[in-house]
Specification:
single chain; 411 residues; alpha+beta; Elongation Factor Tu (Ef-tu), domain 3; OB fold (Dihydrolipoamide Acetyltransferase, E2P); six-stranded antiparallel beta barrel; four-stranded antiparallel sheet; 16% strand; elongated
Length: 411
């Protein structure tokens, strides 16, 4: 309506004034319901063309959207394994700090596993004491075998020397018996040394490996026990939490609640503009924001980032080939905005539904580009000037919103 009224001042009104005062045609006589189109056809046609052109120019170079919000993050509270709740430490709506206990699952099975693993560690530690005693016994056997071998060797050497001198005190049978005794003692010594090596291998290799395995099993059991207590992963407000002792928790089917971290998403708004606005929207553009949660307020904003993708093109690999015609909805251009002045969005809750308008500004181009022609300069001035229209519209809608919601809607 505003655009139509403005355009009629330059088209329809001059045409009527010409017909009325230059040609002397009057309403009710030459101008009536049946002849007004013929008499004012040039003004009406020009008004329609100019109005359509103006509306197109306004909403192309100064795009507006009602799809604006500030997204925030939520953290799902889950246990790593299913179980039955044994104890609850917090209540719904409570502010939690990172590391605070939230709830505890029944840990009788995990406690038994920890006890078993700890006893296995103690058993392996006791085996070290036994193995050390076995090693000392094996060393003693080696010394005993060495002594017996030395004694048998000396006896053989003595008898063999007497036999070599043809002494009647020795005979060949006794020398052979002494030699066999040396061989037997040598085998006993080697067996004793082999037993010592086996005991040392058990003490230095096998038992440490068993101790490490038992320690690892104990750590795993303690880790499983620690998983029965669920902690807050970061600071946040606890919401949708109604857990009670005895409830069954399943990390796939039944979460315990959600945690809303503070500050995440604050002062940063994401807007979805029509794809026709993609050539116009640039980083650094200035705009205005209006939210229902802060009535009668217009907040200056600045574009800080523009997405280089359209969410409608997203797909997830499946066993069925994606058909483009199934994409019924055309996606929007994602634009990220932040307040132009610090503190401008302090009192706007995260997740608010808002309206935003961006304004194309050609001031720098008009000031710094000497190659612009006269028509180009006029066109750029017109584009900047018609920004007044969306500015008026967003203010009028901001003023009307509380009345429409609280009075006219009946809620």
């Amino acid at each position: 309506m505003l655009e139509l009224m403005i355009c009629s001042l330059f088209t329809l009104v001059p045409d009527y004034l010409y017909r009325r005062y230059a040609q002397g045609k009057r309403f009710g006589h030459e101008l009536d319901l049946f002849t007004v189109w013929y008499e004012l056809r040039w003004g009406i046609t020009g008004c329609a063309i100019l109005t359509i052109s103006l509306i197109t120019t306004v909403f192309f170079f100064h795009p507006t959207t009602t799809n604006v919000t500030s997204f925030f993050r939520t953290v799902t509270i889950l246990s790593e394994k299913p179980g039955r709740v044994a104890e609850v430490y917090v209540r719904n709506g409570q502010m939690l700090q990172a590391g605070d206990k939230i709830f505890k699952l029944d840990d009788s099975v995990q406690q038994a596993a920890v006890k078993t693993a700890r006893e296995q560690v103690e058993q392996v530690e006791a085996s070290f004491t036994v193995a050390q005693a076995d090693l000392e016994a094996a060393i003693g056997q080696v010394h005993q075998a060495e002594g017996a071998l030395q004694q048998a060797q000396e006896e053989f050497d003595t008898r063999n020397a007497l036999l070599q001198t043809n002494s009647p005190a020795a005979n060949r049978r006794e020398v052979e018996r002494a030699e066999n005794n040396v061989t037997q003692r040598q085998g006993g010594l080697e067996a004793a040394k082999a037993n010592q090596k086996a005991v040392e291998a058990n003490l230095n290799t096998l038992l440490p490996a068993q101790r490490d395995t038992a320690a690892a099993a104990l750590e795993q059991a303690e880790a499983e026990l620690a998983k029965t207590v669920v902690y807050a992963s970061e600071d946040g407000i606890l919401q949708q939490f109604a857990l009670q002792p005895g409830d069954l928790i399943n990390p796939v089917l039944r979460p315990a609640g959600i945690l809303i971290p503070p500050g995440v998403g604050q002062h940063r708004f994401e807007a979805g503009f029509n794809q026709l606005a993609a050539p116009v929207i640039k980083t650094g553009m200035v705009g205005e924001l209006s939210c229902a949660t802060k009535a009668f307020s217009i907040i200056p904003m600045r574009v800080v980032a523009v997405s280089d993708f359209i969410p409608a093109g997203q797909f997830r690999p499946t066993d069925q080939l994606v058909d483009i015609q199934d994409r019924a909805r055309s996606g929007t251009v994602g634009v990220f905005m932040e307040p132009l002045f610090e503190g401008g969005t302090d009192h706007i809750p995260r997740g608010s539904k808002c309206r935003a308008t961006l304004y194309t500004n050609n001031h720098d181009r008009l000031e710094n580009d000497p190659d612009l022609g006269t028509l180009q300069r006029i066109g750029l001035h017109v584009i900047d000037t018609v920004a007044l229209v969306p500015a008026i519209l967003i203010r009028s809608k901001t003023v009307r919103l509380p009345i429409e919601v609280l009075v006219l809607s009946g809620h």
